[in-house]
Amino acid sequence: MHLDVHDLRAFYYRSALGRAAQKVLRDRLRGLWPDARGHCVVGFGFAAPLLRPFLPEARRVLSLMPGPQGVMPWPSGGPNVSALVEETLWPLPTGFVDRLVLLHGLEVSEHPSALLEECFRVLGPGGRLVVIVPNRAGLWSRTDATPFGYGRPYSLGQLDATLRRHRFLVEETASALYQPPSAHRFWRRAAGFLENVGQHLPVFAAGGALLVAASKQTAQPSRGLLVRDLARRPVLAPAGLPAPAGRVADPPPF
User: Fold this and answer.
1) Strands 60-66, 82-85: parallel, antiparallel or unpaired by DSSP?
2) H helix intervals, the chain
3) CATH T-level assignment (fold) for domain 5-218
4) pLDDT of residue 138
5) pTM for the complete prediction?
6) Which residue has the higher pLDDT, 1 or 171?
């Protein structure tokens, strides 16, 4: 079930809780991708709130939003780089993307397997993917007061297995949103402290969101057919043919 783009925009840009969540997730993503110079950075779902730090340095930044969700122009005050796309058929060439982030994309998708196949297609060699989903063990997936209460929450093991099944190599895992999903003033004041404490807890603890960084896994070539290996092998005359002229054939064994 996709949320409407207006609801997502209202949460991340107009509510105190949403702005706090935006900052936490953006900082965590920036920690995973500290340098995007020269890269093509793409977000799918509602990843626009996390992409702004990459605008000044990346070669290109695109925000793809699925049809059932709807689209909004982004960024404000600059040329639009946001587009409405089919969930599993993006208007991007194969291997075009260097960095890809999914936020409110995988857990609400009606075709998660096909979505990950499309992610694999558009990523180039060495491309990296970060998937952000609601944590099944966290508080945020247990209330529909935030976008993390919709769709299918994941455990770390489930998300790891899903990515590996689609030929992604999981490299790093993180968790975020340790603050309760409440707009109460007390929890808003304690949000920074709770996030700092949460970073020292196991990744599967009470964090509301899981972040998994993975890379595109490519098949290794088979050594049995490499030309350099064939060149090292001795060339044998076919059985039953006479030995070359000027050379005496070895006598048969007794």
Assistant:
1) parallel
2) 5-14, 16-32, 48-51, 112-122, 156-165, 185-198, 227-232
3) Rossmann fold (3.40.50)
4) 86
5) 0.81
6) 171
